[in-house]
């Protein structure tokens, strides 16, 4: 049976083919030609979607950042910095829910390769910059904005670490609990 | 005049030679043989001190981690998690003061190379793990310990970003102020 050869379905098949091949034979040993072949597209199509071997594992980064910065831009006036950052993570919860089925496979692959770990760190840094910038447009000075963005990332990691990966409501509640815990940590200083 | 050829002075000269050469001709274009030659030692001596081209830029990581985890281990009973982390950063202030003269040159070189950026990120991750582990030995459960370690890192970045790089007292005060700011951020949630 012929399969569709381009657009979103091809992109999704390339992502899945890359996860499979990187998992089976390792990131370094896998070529874009092999990924394309398993996805049933040409290598040329691969490169229409992704610039290199790494990016196929980081699809959705732009959507995540756009979703989160839009949530900050559209927030009601007067929300304090960390509340804005948590609003941004809250807006991204559906994306985390959608991404969860492959998140662990993806994380295991990233862990195996310094080049992929660097890309993952760069993604975190890009998100911190984007959130810092979005807070800046809300009048929050840069050092405070950066502190709020980094604190928010720690809160999100804490909340999502306890998440079962199933419902958005649970993840949202866990982020709120993590923020409460940060509040306790940050105020019980001697 | 003959210069000492081994031990701590050689190590210090290798660090300086690497900073010079990486700055002058780039990290990728520089060989360990060139670094050794400029430091007046053999390449064999280079490899007695550093396992590869990257590590010469990350000397002192072990001392930093040992200093910080020792500060947590020796803290009075009853200090809450973030206070323990800030005590650890406080204990490391003399190391930051000592490292400051080369910190900017070093940071500029790291920025130019994905391999060095990965190494720097790995260093941050190693520190987070070490602090999380040290808090664990004080009875703090892992998710809370990790949140405190990450929050502490954000606080330190915030404080050191405003530092003029000169006195330890200033850096210590800036870390305290940054912790206060995190406390405000984390409690002004709606």
TrEMBL record, chains A, B:
Annotated GO MF terms: DNA-binding transcription factor activity; transcription cis-regulatory region binding
Sorted UniProt keywords: DNA-binding, Transcription, Transcription regulation
Pfam families per the UniProt record, alphabetical: TetR_N
Keyword Mitochondrion in record: no
SUPFAM superfamilies: Homeodomain-like
Domain HTH tetR-type, first and last residues per copy: 8-68
PANTHER family (UniProt xref): HTH-TYPE TRANSCRIPTIONAL REGULATOR RUTR, MYCOFACTOCIN BIOSYNTHESIS TRANSCRIPTIONAL REGULATOR MFTR-RELATED
Protein's recorded name: Putative TetR family transcriptional regulator
Source organism per UniProt: Actinacidiphila reveromycinica
Organism ancestry: Bacteria, Bacillati, Actinomycetota, Actinomycetes, Kitasatosporales
């Amino acid at each position: 049976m012929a399969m569709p050869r381009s657009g979103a379905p091809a992109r999704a098949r390339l992502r899945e083919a890359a996860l499979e091949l990187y998992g089976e034979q390792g990131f370094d040993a896998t070529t874009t030609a092999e990924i394309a072949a398993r996805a049933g597209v040409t290598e040329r199509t691969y490169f229409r979607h992704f610039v290199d071997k790494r990016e196929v594992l980081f699809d959705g980064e732009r959507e995540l950042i756009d979703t989160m910065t839009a949530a900050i831009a559209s927030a009601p006036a007067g929300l304090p910095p960390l509340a804005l950052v948590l609003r941004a993570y809250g807006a991204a919860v559906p994306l985390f829910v959608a991404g969860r089925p492959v998140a662990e496979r993806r994380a295991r692959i990233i862990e195996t390769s310094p080049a992929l770990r660097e890309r993952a760190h760069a993604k975190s840094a890009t998100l911190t910059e984007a959130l810092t910038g979005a807070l800046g447009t809300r009048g929050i000075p840069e050092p405070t904005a950066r502190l709020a963005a980094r604190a928010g990332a720690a809160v999100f990691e804490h909340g999502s670490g306890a998440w079962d990966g199933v419902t958005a409501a649970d993840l949202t509640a866990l982020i709120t609990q993590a923020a409460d815990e940060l509040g306790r940590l940050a105020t019980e200083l001697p």
